[in-house]
Amino acid sequence: MKINKRKTFPSAPRKPKGLARKSAEPKPPDIFQKKFRALLPAAKDALGLNMTWPTPLAVANVALQTQVFSRLRPETDLEKRICAHPDFLACVVWGPKRPGHHEGTVMEHIALLFNEIEQWTNNPAARALPFRPAPRRVLRPIGLIHDAFKRYQYEKPKALPQASHFQFAASFARHLGVSENICRVIELHDFSFYIMRDFKKTGDEATAKERTRQLLACVDPKIYFAFIYVDRRAGLEPDGSPGNTDGIIAFWNQVQAWGLLNG
Predict the structure, then answer these.
(1) What is the distance between the alpha carbons of residues 183 and 153, in angstroms, rounded to a whole number?
(2) What pLDDT, on a 0 to 100 scale, did the predictor assign at position 59?
(3) Cα dihedral sign for 237, 238, 241, 246?
(4) Which of 56, 95, 217, 248 could form a disulfide with 105, with the two C-beta atoms 3.0–4.6 Å apart?
């Protein structure tokens, strides 16, 4: 992968002095603060990266774009812009077979995820689940972007700060003007796993409940649960079968037991 040399991200533009902040803008929940990040050491660099997306680091590759368009078949203008971006193209072809992702490349994961979305949204009643699918027009952009930049996490170009794939993904989505509702699901899609993993390890129910409360305050729960379900299904097991979703159902049941969802 050819990378253009660039030392730093361009700084976000500063607001002119005297420009009043919007008083109607709510204060973000604690999940965006260091206090919450300290509770999640495995994701300690989440949500704190204030950056603008740089000039593409990767060089445009027409052959690669053709390959990605053929496999993922983007539908909307937004999906086509995502799939044509040089950095997206360079990153989605990355991915060795690994625990939780025996399908290999990120592109293959996205293709399987799209298939899961189609099957579920076309026949929701076929799956005995406690929650229903979100609209495909909402799930597909999340699916395209959520894991796209794992390559930049593990093979970090010098031009990039140290960050997790979901930080890069959310930053990229915001750069393209994706709604904040979707960006937050992209940014937090792995957090339910972190919460439940640590809960099982420590047995600290009060902390797990508070983390979950903060998480659900930041996302649309219906979209969030629908997405993490199809995401897990698209992460193949070693034998090639769909990913085991027992953990997703267990998290849903725990949330219900804690009374953290209304309706």
Answers:
(1) 18
(2) 85
(3) negative
(4) 95
Residue 98 pairs with which residues in a beta bridge?
101
Whether residue 225 is predicted with pLDDT greater than 90 in this model: the reply is yes
Q: What is the DSSP letter of 101?
A: B
Contact between 48 and 37 under an 8 Å Cβ cutoff? The reply is: yes
- State the amino acid at position 207 in one-letter form: T
User: Is position 27 within any domain?
Assistant: no
Output the CA–CA distances (angstroms, integers) from residue 182 to 73, 129, 145, 149, 188, in the order listed: 20, 22, 10, 17, 10
The CA–CA distances, whole Å, from 219 to 116, 165, 181, 238, 251 equal 21, 18, 7, 31, 15
Whether 5 is covered by a domain: the verdict is no
| Spatial contact of 243 and 233, defined as CB atoms under 8 Å apart | yes
The answer to whether 58 touches 86, Cβ cutoff 8 Å, is yes
3-state helix, strand, coil in the chain (%, to 5): 55, 0, 45
User: Which residue's structure tokens are 């500063």?
Assistant: 14
CATH number, domain of 120, equals 1.10.3210
For the record, the structure tokens of 55 come out as 């000039």
The pTM of this model reads 0.81
Segment 28-53 mean pLDDT: 43
Domain-embedded: residue 8: no
Mean per-residue pLDDT, 63-81: 96
116 inside domain = yes
Cα 236 to Cα 146: distance, rounded to the nearest angstrom: 17
Cα–Cα dist 126/239, whole Å: 23
